[in-house]
Structures are given as structure tokens and as C-alpha cells.
Amino acid sequence: MRLLVTPFPQEEFNPTDDRKSSDPSLGVTCFDCHVNGHTTGPFHLNPDVRPQERRLRLDTTSLRGVFNQQIHSSKRSLRSVEDFTEFEHRTAYFNGDEIHAIKKGMNILDRIQVSHMAQMQNMLDFPPAPKLDPVTGRLDRSKATPSEVRGETLFFGKAQCSGCHPPPIYLDNQMHDLHLERFLNKEPGDGPMKTFTLRGIKDSPPYMHDGRCFTLEDTVEFFNIVLQTRLTAQEKQDLVAFLRQL
């Protein structure tokens, strides 16, 4: 926990003259963006992609329930929390620029420290979901509204959500390519993207890896178009009602 709240030198926010903040800083901490193990919702540019115009805008996701995830990071498919912690510290803090990192006082963490940080992150659980069965992750229909029940039926049926977001943690630990280039004019799509858990999703707007969908309603409409599910207006409302219970 101490390491997760300790400021480390970083490319943009530091005591040097080229900082982006008005006042000098000792750097940033992990929990500056992942406040209380959740998120403040900031975005950053994927640091390991060139040229600049192809760098993806990536959301800072919640760390809640990270112990259930088998791959980490939107694009990199890192296989442990330890790998992600170390990789994030080396790249996101200095954009992969070793020279600037050395000049600004990089602090390379050894694997023992990284392991301790990972174990702390693995203690962060999902937020309460009182309408879900604690074992199966499915809706307890004795507590649910008719709209939420209809939404769950859509989630596992017509809306096709459960193909990538199976219960009880509502993710499949895979990466998927939606081939969005189908809808773009001579522009590439996003390529393979990690599936993120839908548990606690109501607490983490905006949605998608780059925040393109401001609300859950926007997100449902996005997939309604991409997956061509042809949901009615009422079905969209019911699906959102279910998502808010996860």
C-alpha cells in the first residue's frame, strides 16, 4: 500500500522546466489515477505505439476485482498483475523514453516490491451487487424489477452480451476485434481489445477503451449497431436496467 501511494518521478509532472503542471511535483502515485483502488476516470495515450497519430486514447480502468482477471491492459495482454504493474511504471510514467527517464530520476522497482504492490491490488474486490446471486452472479429474480429481469434475458440472448461477458465476473479473459473498420472511411479499426468486466460498470463512465460512449445507454446503442442486434427502444432500456445491477 505504501508503494501505491508513493509519488514516483514521471515524464509530465516533475520538478523540471518542461513539466505540464504550473508547480513542480515529485511525480505521481498509482492511486492518483486509481483512487481508493477504483478510478478517477482519466485517459492517456498508449505510450508504446508510433507514429503519434496512431496512438490510442486509453481509459484508466477500475482495479476492483482485478484478482479475477487473467490478462491485463487494453492492448498488451499482460499475463499477471505483477507484469502490468512493472510495465505501467516503466512506460506510462516515461512514455518508453529511457533518456528522459534517466534525467528525471526514474526509480526502477525490483520484482519483490512489484510483487508486494500486486498482492495489495489483489485485495480490491468488486462493489456490492445486492440483486445478484453471490455464487452464480445471476440476477436474484425475487429482488429484481420486471425491467431488470427482461434485461437479463436480453443479455444472455438477443443482445449477445454474454458471449464476451459471462457470469459470475462478466468477462471471458480474452481479446476481441470488433472490426470497426467496416464502419470507417479508409481508417483502421481498434484491432484486438481486451474484454473488461461488467461488474460495477455503472460506477465507471465513460465507456469503451477511449471513452467514446458517455453513458450505458450510448454503449448499448453502440453494440446494437456493431452487432446488428436490432434492439427496440424498450429492450435497450431493459438491458441498461440490468447492467446497473451488476
Task: Write structural notes for this entry.
With 246 residues, this protein is mostly helical. The protein has 7 helices and 4 strands. Helix 5 (146-155) crosses helix 7 (233-243). It is globular, with a radius of gyration of 20 Å. It starts with 29 loop residues before the first helix and ends with a helix.
Integer-rounded radius of gyration? 20 Å
Question: How many individual helices?
Answer: 7
| Overall number of strands | 4
Low-confidence stretches: none
Overall mean confidence score, pLDDT: 87
Structural class: mainly alpha
Distance separating the two termini = 27 Å
Strand content: under 5%
Which overall shape is indicated by the principal axes computed on the Cα atoms?
globular
Count of structural domains: 2
Major β-sheet strand ordering: 1-2
Q: Encode the helix/strand succession as letters.
A: HEEHHHHEEHH
